């Protein structure tokens, strides 16, 4: 009898810790083909389903501060789905995307522990590995196989995600560097290694701006501004205004498409980033004057057209999955006619779900910030900044990309969000 008890306990412990181990390695899969991430999520959900302890899991899920706002978003999506026509071939996938946040709850039901620190380290390892692949591709030494395809050619949302992940990883590295009292030289080298890959190789405007934003969050983390912080912030803003004014009067680049800059005009790294920055300022200037956009600046046209359609039904929206067919009809003959999303989650949620959907989305993200604020004065204080930075990353990136509408973005962000938030009690996030 006594010999069988330890075996049973070992089996129970193994089953309960396996989901944590799988989740701790999922951040590495984010830097490769999306199929690896999906396979990892399936393994996680299977291990979670067979790990037992359902009473505690359900209790942890129901006590989460995110439970009500996520449930509210699901309810709104169901009601809107019943009110409006459901376009064939679009509705099912669009409806499921509005339930993406439900995937977070199995992750939040896990107990906190040392696996969370390993998960952060694995995320840093993935970022360093991604930076290395970017450098190898810049040197022409990366094989063009499917596993590394996102580093060799531009793959739309996947390539954008790689830039965002590098920006988040670099900011998290800065936070860890500030907290830890050891290995400063190695931490500095890793941070610089990832940051240079972000600026010189990823060539993502959104990601570069995101990194600057997250650095500002770190500087203002306590909302207790010293004189040098106020002076530095004012100097940066002043310099930014003068820089934008100066760039607006520069000659237009030969092209605003990153692929043409690289393939046709043999530009690299910082030169591409500088040209794209100039293009961005010129696109905003030209759109304000003539309402005309180039292929690279079609987001401005997307936003204007989508906003005009929102004003036709701001309260109950136009229905799930209806943005694409309605936009293609409105934008006939325009350069953005073939776009599949408005590249802005706020506009998309408002357009399809109405004001209730937009409010539900904002309630989720504001709840995440409230959880982070509560974590500051708890045993989870070191992870509070990670939650804050990731939430602000989602809110910022949603201005320019389909962060929740596309599973490539949504699942990656939810995996990262679960790492610092798992094990946070209801009393902490209340």
UniProtKB/TrEMBL annotation:
It is a multi-pass membrane protein. The chain crosses the membrane at residues 22-46, 66-85, 91-110, 122-145, 151-172, 230-248, 347-372, 384-403, 409-428. It comes from the Bacteria. Keywords: Membrane, Transmembrane, Transmembrane helix. The keyword Membrane applies. Residues 194-362 form the O-antigen ligase-related domain. It is found in: Membrane. The keyword Membrane applies. This is O-antigen ligase-related domain-containing protein. It comes from Undibacterium macrobrachii.
């Amino acid at each position: 009898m006594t010999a069988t008890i330890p075996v049973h306990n070992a089996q129970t412990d193994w089953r309960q810790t396996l989901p944590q181990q799988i989740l701790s390695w999922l951040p590495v899969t984010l830097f490769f083909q999306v199929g690896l991430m999906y396979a990892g999520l399936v393994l996680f959900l299977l291990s979670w389903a067979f790990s037992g302890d359902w009473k505690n899991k359900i209790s942890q899920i129901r006590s989460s501060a995110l439970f009500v706002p996520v449930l509210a978003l699901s309810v709104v999506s169901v009601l809107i789905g019943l009110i409006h026509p459901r376009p064939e071939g679009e509705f099912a996938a669009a409806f499921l995307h509005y339930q993406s946040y439900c995937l977070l709850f199995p992750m939040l039901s896990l107990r906190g522990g040392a696996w969370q620190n390993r998960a952060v380290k694995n995320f840093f390892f993935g970022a360093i590995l991604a930076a290395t692949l970017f450098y190898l591709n810049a040197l022409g030494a990366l094989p063009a196989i499917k596993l590394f395809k996102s580093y060799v050619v531009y793959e739309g949302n996947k390539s954008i995600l790689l830039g965002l992940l590098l920006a988040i990883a670099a900011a998290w590295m800065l936070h860890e560097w500030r907290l830890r009292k050891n290995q400063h030289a190695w931490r500095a080298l890793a941070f610089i290694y990832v940051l240079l890959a972000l600026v010189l190789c990823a060539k993502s405007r959104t990601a570069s701006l995101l990194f600057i934003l997250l650095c500002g969050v770190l500087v203002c983390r306590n909302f207790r501004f010293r004189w040098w912080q106020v002076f530095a912030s004012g100097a940066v803003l002043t310099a930014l205004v003068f820089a934008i004014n100066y760039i607006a009067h520069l000659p237009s680049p030969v092209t605003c498409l990153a692929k043409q800059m690289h393939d046709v005009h043999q530009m690299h790294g910082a030169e591409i980033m500088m040209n794209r920055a100039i293009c961005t300022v010129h696109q905003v200037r030209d759109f304000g004057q003539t309402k005309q956009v180039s292929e690279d600046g079609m987001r401005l046209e997307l936003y204007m057209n989508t906003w005009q359609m929102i004003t036709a039904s701001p309260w109950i929206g136009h229905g799930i999955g209806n943005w694409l067919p309605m936009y293609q009809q409105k934008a006939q003959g325009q350069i953005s006619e073939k776009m599949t999303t408005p590249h802005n989650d706020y506009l998309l949620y408002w357009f399809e779900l109405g004001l209730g959907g937009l409010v539900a989305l904002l309630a989720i993200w504001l709840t995440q910030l409230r959880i982070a604020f509560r974590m500051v004065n708890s045993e989870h204080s070191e992870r509070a900044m990670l939650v804050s930075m990731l939430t602000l990353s989602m809110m910022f990136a949603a201005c320019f990309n389909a962060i929740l509408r596309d599973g490539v973005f949504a699942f990656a962000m939810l995996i990262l969000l679960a790492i610092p938030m798992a094990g946070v009690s209801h009393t902490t996030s209340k």
